[in-house]
Structures are given as structure tokens and as C-alpha cells.
Amino acid sequence: MLYTKEMTPPSSPFHYCPACGLKGIEFLRQKEFRCAACGFRYFHSVATAVGALLMHDGKALFIERALEPSKGKLGLAGGFVDPGERAEEALAREVREEVGGEVGVPELLTSFPNQYSFRTAWYHTCDFYFRADLLTPPDRLISDPKEVASLVWLEPRDVNPDDLAFSSLQAFWRFLLSSGRLE
Questions:
Q1: Looking at residue 120, what DSSP letter applies?
Q2: Do the Cβ atoms of 122 and 5 come closer than 8 Å?
Q3: The domain that contains 108 carries what CATH number?
Q4: In the prediction, which pLDDT does 117 show?
Q5: Do the bridges between strand 32-35 and strand 41-43 make them parallel or antiparallel, or are there none, so unpaired?
Q6: CA-based R_g, the chain, Å
Q7: Are residues 21 and 54 in the same domain?
Q8: Do residue 26 and residue 90 come from a single domain?
């Protein structure tokens, strides 16, 4: 997916107006829903997500996703930032939850917009990608089988961006390969 200012969502997550219950809520200008019947307006703001580039012996840690969206595809340990949580805290929490590891102080590399679909809802996200030292030895990592089918260590240059789970992750990987940030 090319990154343009306007991204088209797969479909509206609303079928009925949350205020009056009538059908016919409209999606306007990439972020606003409006009910023609009662005038209710909802602004669909961007959700923040994080991904962790964790390296060991020249290889990058990927997770094979156990759940939709993109079940079976490769992703990085990461996820949504909770309300009241700093992105760096979310990164440490997600690495702990998904792969059972602890990380050092993360370094922000870049961010990319994304659309994340979950069941019938979708979210505009801004995915922040960090590089962090993995403080837990790789042989002591324990993945969460509810979220992670397996842990996969790959040479960065062997990763095909098209095999990655999300368009923002694909763009991030292309950015890393072209910028020399994997050296």
C-alpha cells in the first residue's frame, strides 16, 4: 500500500447511530462519522501502536502471528498503546506479554500510518517502530501461544517485506533496508 494522505477503510464499523439508533450513519473526510437523522458526530482518531525490532547475533526476532488479522504472517513483538501509557512503556509491556522478554531503553526509528482491521471494526493507526536491546537471553524467551504461533529469527536481508503482516511493517522494513539502519 502506498502511503497517501487519504486511506480508504474497508467498511464502516457503524451500522446504527450510537446516539439515536437509526441506520444511515455516514463516513466523512477520513475520520468523521455523522448521523443524518440526529446530527451525532464521532471523530475516529488515530490509535497509537508500537513494534519492537529486537536483534541478536545479527538476526531479527519475528513472531508468527497466531491470530487474525494476518494469522500465519510475520510481525514484530508489539501492539496498541493503552490509555495513559507512554509508547516506550507499551513496547516493554508488549515484548513481555508476547515473547516473555525484557528490553533496554528503546530507540525510535520511524513511524508509518496503517489501517488495522479486527473483526468488523477497523482503526487508523500510527505505528511507531523502535529498536531495543533484548535483555533476556533468546533461549529463555517464552511466547504467548494465544498470540504467537512461533518465534522466528531471520537475517534482516533475507526478509521479504511482502511476507510481513501489515502494510506499515512492510514500509518499515523497506525503510530499514534502504537506509542502512540494520547494520
A1: T
A2: no
A3: 3.90.79.10
A4: 78
A5: antiparallel
A6: 18
A7: no
A8: no
| Residue 110 confidence (pLDDT) above 70 | yes
The model's pTM is 0.84
- In DSSP terms, 77 is beta-bridged to 52
Total residue length of the chain: 183
Reduced DSSP (H G I as helix, E B as strand, rest coil) percent helix, strand, coil of the chain, to 5:
20, 40, 40
The answer to the question of residue 4 being in a domain is no
The total number of structural domains in the chain stands at 2
* Gap between the terminal Cα atoms of the chain: 26
Instruction: Give CB contacts under 8 A, 24+ apart, made by 85-89.
Output: 87/48, 87/50, 87/128, 87/130, 88/130
pLDDT digits (tens, 9 = 90+) for 42-96: 887 889 999 999 999 999 999 999 988 899 999 999 999 999 999 999 999 999 9
User: Are residues 114 and 166 in contact, defined by beta-carbon separation less than 8 angstroms?
Assistant: yes
Q: Residue 32's domain spans which residues? A: 14-44
Q: Residue 47 has which C-alpha cell?
A: 490509535
Using the 3D structure, point to which of 44, 64, 82 is the last residue of a domain: 44
Strands 121-133 and 47-56: parallel
Q: Are residues 108 and 30 in the same domain?
A: no
